[in-house]
């Protein structure tokens, strides 16, 4: 049975980005442009009915979206958007796609609602082809929509090919690069696309004039002046789109009951989950699959990615947290660095200039100043003195340090792993500990202080 499919055009190099990276892999708030387009399609078209035309940097594209490769169609030479459609056509056809939604891969902010509205209008009016337009006073490099005296669409003319003498005075309506089409009606037009134009490319946009000339109904659906429908072609346009997205995410958080101080400087990625009742302060960056629980508070100048911040936790300013889990009611920072697999359990405290990696601080344990905890397990209530270093790396491999519950590690201690400090043990300041210390023991490892008369 004929069903709805989607095709994303993403094979181009993106020359105006002046970068070797395929354009659609450039990121907005940490996620590639193409990721945002896939996300807009979620719930509209099943993943199995989404195809992507790739070409330039196809290998990088596969690496960036391994789960999507079954839907990749390779356009070896990028001869234009019309050629991209021609290249994908056999795959779409044999999959039984009846209605096809086509989206330029460089339109990362396209709202799901705009795609849904276009599809609804398409289903209601059944034209051969429909496309979304944007009102733009300065149409710059975008394709221009040409309408006849009755307001019906006549053609889309690309900027380079636009001649006011032929096409009439420049209007302010442009093509967004988002189309819905009836495969059966458009199929016969496809081979008729030519490349006799200023770019020497096969344009998908020429389908409009071809359909009109064939007497087929074409619909130019006006999307208003929504800047989210604009394609991104240069670093400056990418930066503008990213700022739009940033502001809309922050507005959404404020509406949902997240307290955002200095909202103009808070950056929150699209996958981050901030529960209502948490509090953050800009400037800050919160990326990836970070989760901040209700009642947690994150101070300014923090950079956080893929981390979990528990209820009631307080992250003071200037912390760098990645792949870590901060438990309920913990206090972190200022100036703390939590690296992947750092875990702080209920009420633990990490102070300034403390770095943790693959290390766990048990409930109520503290490392308040100038410490490195790597490959370490610290028991509940233990106290790690200033300047304590777990020497986890011997030049070849990493080894673990285990510190028991209620242990007290004196300042400036080096714990040479693998080593275990017992429960409630005490290590004197300045020690270099190379052997295990038993429960309830006092370990001292330093030379006795001498006092001699000073030489005159
Ligand atoms: C295109 C439209 C233009 C519209 C604009 C909206 C055409 C001819 N023009 O122009 O009317 O206003 O989008 O943003 O379509 N691509 C391929 N294979 C190719 C060429 C391009 O897959 O051979 C992909 C690109 O990766 C890109 C998309 O198609 O994601 C659009 O191509 P691009 O070159 O950016 O077209 P525009 O000049 O922006
Ligand atoms: Ca473009």
Task: Kindly describe this structure.
With 456 residues, the protein is an alpha/beta fold. It has a 23-stranded parallel sheet that branches. Strands 5-4-1-6-10-7-11 form a 7-stranded mixed sheet, sandwiched between helices. It has a 3-stranded parallel sheet with strand order 30-33-36, with no helix packed on it. The model has no long low-confidence stretch (mean pLDDT 97). The chain has 2 domains: 3-229, Spore Coat Polysaccharide Biosynthesis Protein SpsA, Chain A, CATH 3.90.550; 235-443, Hexapeptide repeat proteins (UDP N-Acetylglucosamine Acyltransferase, domain 1). It contains 8 helices and 37 strands. Uridine-diphosphate-N-acetylglucosamine binds next to helix 3 and strand 10.
What is the residue-mean pLDDT, rounded to a whole number? 97
Q: Segments where pLDDT lies below 50 for 5+ residues?
A: none
Q: Could you please say which CATH topology of the largest domain applies here? A: Spore Coat Polysaccharide Biosynthesis Protein SpsA, Chain A
Q: Name the overall outline.
A: elongated
């Amino acid at each position: 049975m004929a069903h709805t499919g989607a095709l994303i055009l993403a094979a181009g190099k993106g020359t105006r980005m002046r970068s070797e990276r395929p354009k659609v892999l450039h990121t907005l708030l940490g996620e590639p442009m193409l990721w945002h387009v896939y996300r807009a399609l979620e719930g509209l078209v099943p993943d199995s009915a989404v195809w992507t035309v790739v070409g330039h940097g196809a290998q990088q594209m596969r690496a960036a979206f391994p789960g999507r490769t079954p839907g990749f169609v390779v356009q070896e030479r990028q001869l234009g958007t019309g050629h991209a459609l021609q290249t994908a056509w056999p795959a779409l056809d044999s999959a039984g796609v009846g209605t096809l939604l086509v989206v330029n891969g460089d339109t990362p902010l396209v709202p799901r609602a705009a795609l849904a509205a276009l599809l609804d209008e398409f289903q209601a009016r059944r034209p051969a082809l429909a496309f979304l337009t944007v009102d733009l006073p300065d149409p710059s490099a975008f394709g221009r929509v040409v309408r006849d005296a009755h307001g019906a669409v006549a053609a889309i003319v690309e900027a380079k090919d636009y001649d006011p003498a032929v096409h009439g005075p420049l209007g302010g309506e442009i093509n967004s690069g988002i189309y819905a089409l009836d495969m059966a009606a458009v199929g016969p037009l496809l081979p008729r696309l030519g490349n006799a134009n200023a770019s020497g490319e096969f344009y998908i946009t020429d389908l409009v004039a071809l359909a009109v000339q064939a007497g087929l109904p074409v619909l130019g659906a006006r999307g208003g002046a929504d800047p989210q429908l604009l394609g991104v072609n240069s670093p400056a346009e990418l930066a503008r789109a990213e700022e739009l997205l940033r502001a809309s995410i922050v507005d959404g958080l404020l509406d949902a009951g997240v307290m955002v101080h200095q909202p103009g400087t808070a950056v929150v990625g699209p996958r981050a989950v901030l529960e209502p009742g948490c509090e953050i302060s800009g400037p800050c960056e919160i990326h990836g699959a970070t989760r901040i629980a209700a009642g947690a508070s994150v101070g300014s100048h923090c950079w956080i990615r893929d981390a979990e911040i528990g209820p009631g936790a307080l992250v003071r300013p200037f912390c760098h947290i990645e792949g870590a889990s901060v438990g309920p009611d913990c206090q972190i920072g200022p100036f703390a660095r939590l690296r992947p697999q750092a875990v702080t359990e209920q009420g633990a405290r990490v102070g300034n200039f403390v770095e943790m990696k693959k290390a766990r601080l048990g409930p109520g344990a503290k490392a308040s100043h100038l410490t490195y905890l790597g490959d370490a397990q610290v028991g509940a209530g233990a106290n790690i003195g200033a300047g304590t270093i777990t020497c986890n790396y011997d030049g070849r491999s990493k080894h673990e340090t285990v510190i028991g519950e209620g242990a007290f590690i004196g300042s400036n201690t080096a714990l040479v792993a693998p080593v275990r400090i017992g429960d409630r043990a005490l290590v004197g300041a300045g020690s270099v500990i190379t052997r295990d210390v038993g429960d309830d023991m006092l370990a001292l490892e330093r030379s006795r202080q001498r006092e001699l008369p000073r030489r005159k």
